[in-house]
Specification:
This protein has about 375 residues and is mainly α. It folds into three domains: about 45 residues; about 100 residues, Tyrosine recombinase, N-terminal domain (DNA polymerase, domain 1, Orthogonal Bundle); about 180 residues, Orthogonal Bundle (hpI Integrase, Chain A), CATH 1.10.443. Helices cover about 50% and strands about 10% of the residues. The strands form three sheets. A three-stranded antiparallel sheet has the order 1-2-3, with helices on one face. A three-stranded antiparallel sheet has the order 4-5-8. A two-stranded antiparallel ribbon has the order 6-7. A hairpin with a 4-residue loop joins strand 4 and strand 5. Helix 3 crosses helix 5 and helix 8 crosses helix 12. The longest helix has 21 residues.
Length: about 375
């Protein structure tokens, strides 16, 4: 009896080779760690006499059973609560009806692609379907690591959801300077308590959950900076979207507005009889953080209507922040850091078309090299 781990000579990956009772069996794995774990399990079972190579029947493992077991165990320890809820919703509404009791070993790449095509054909946006694929891909990745399947059939299938850069960019909605001025003026006149909130969205480029989670201690108004440390989602405080915080510069106008808000907040605290000034910068009547959904559903539509502006999502204020920075000459690296993007490449792909073009002074600098002989002679003659 022998159980050996060997690297595949023909393609990336590893084999576990089992010689037992004059029979040989090979099983392929995508990485060495998974192969080693499987080999260890086989050796233990052979030692116990419970591994009948010639009679072995793989244990049935339905997709639905594995997904629920995986998310119940992995989710609470490694995923944000919002991501867990998204994965559960994805599973119940989309993955379970399609894959259901299909055994993990029977799920093929073609089946995954058919699932994606069907969802797009049903009218779901490609971004929505990409979120569905994310949950499926993550689950099957763990099935590979657990040694239940040799490779992830959902790997590299996102290409079927490819969207051209032009189409992606056409979805980005941002305000013109005139629209921005009208929005702020209307907010100041007719929704006065919300003016600092909307101004912060426009001047910091934060997500609405991040602005709702701001505390006074996050700001250094003299140095004009703020640390984005939290995100308020579904009634819970969590980390920013990429899992880490960032520092953002504060404009002069916003700094002055927040200093005035601090003074008003102290007066309001005394008037309400509160023991201390609330930690949160933007609060509701009870002194708790503003609920993003409350602003989004109740205040935002009324504000746009009063300002006589076209309807656009609140996230457009974040796009406006980024596009305005780039148009004013900010580097992509500066915008990436301010926005909290995971890479400068993503920032370039999303907002690169806002970079000013036609800067002739830059190409004129190229003429500073020594002139060609023909041009020199011509001038001399």
């Amino acid at each position: 009896m022998a159980v050996r781990v060997r690297q595949r000579p023909d393609r990336p990956g590893w084999y576990v080779v089992i010689d037992h009772n004059a029979k040989r069996k090979k099983k392929a794995f995508p990485d060495k760690d998974t192969a080693v774990r499987f080999a260890r399990t086989v050796r233990e079972r052979l030692a116990e006499g419970s591994f009948g190579l010639e009679r072995e029947q793989p244990e049935a493992r339905p997709f639905s059973t594995y997904f629920e077991t995986w998310l119940n165990g992995y989710g609470p320890t490694r995923l944000k609560s919002s991501t867990q809820e998204l994965y559960w919703s994805t599973y119940k509404c989309h993955l379970k009806p399609f894959f259901g009791e299909t055994d993990l070993t029977k799920i093929t790449r073609e089946q995954v692609k058919r699932f994606l095509y069907d969802k797009v054909a049903s009218g779901l946006s490609r971004d929505h379907v990409r979120n569905l694929l994310s949950a499926l891909h993550e689950c099957l990745n763990h099935a590979v690591k657990d040694g239940y399947i040799p490779a992830n059939p959902a790997a590299r299938t996102s290409r079927v959801l490819y969207v051209r850069k032009e189409e992606k960019r056409s979805r980005i909605v941002f305000l013109t300077p005139e629209e921005e001025a009208r929005l702020l003026e209307t907010c100041r006149e007719h929704h006065t308590p919300w003016h600092p909130f909307v101004l912060a969205l426009l001047r910091l480029g934060v997500r609405i959950g991040e602005v709702c989670a701001l505390q006074w201690g996050d700001f250094d108004l003299e140095a004009r900076s703020v640390d984005i440390r939290r995100n308020y989602v579904d009634g819970k405080m969590t980390t920013p979207k990429n899992g880490s915080g960032r520092r953002v510069d504060v404009s002069l106008h916003l700094a002055d507005t927040l200093k005035a808000l601090q003074v008003d907040r102290k007066k309001h605290t005394l008037k309400q009889g509160w023991r201390e000034v609330p930690l949160w910068v933007f609060i509701n009547e009870a002194g708790n953080p503003v609920d993003p959904d409350n602003f989004r559903n109740r205040v935002w539509p009324k504000l746009l209507s009063k300002a006589d502006l076209r309807h656009f999502p609140i996230h457009s204020l974040r796009h406006t922040f980024a596009s305005r920075l780039i148009q004013n000459g900010a580097t992509l690296l500066y915008v990436q850091n301010a926005m909290g993007h995971h890479s400068a490449a993503f920032t370039l792909q999303t907002y690169g078309h806002f970079q000013p073009s036609g800067n002739r002074s830059e190409v004129d600098k190229l003429d500073a090299v020594p002139q060609e002989h023909g041009q020199t002679d011509k001038k001399a003659g």
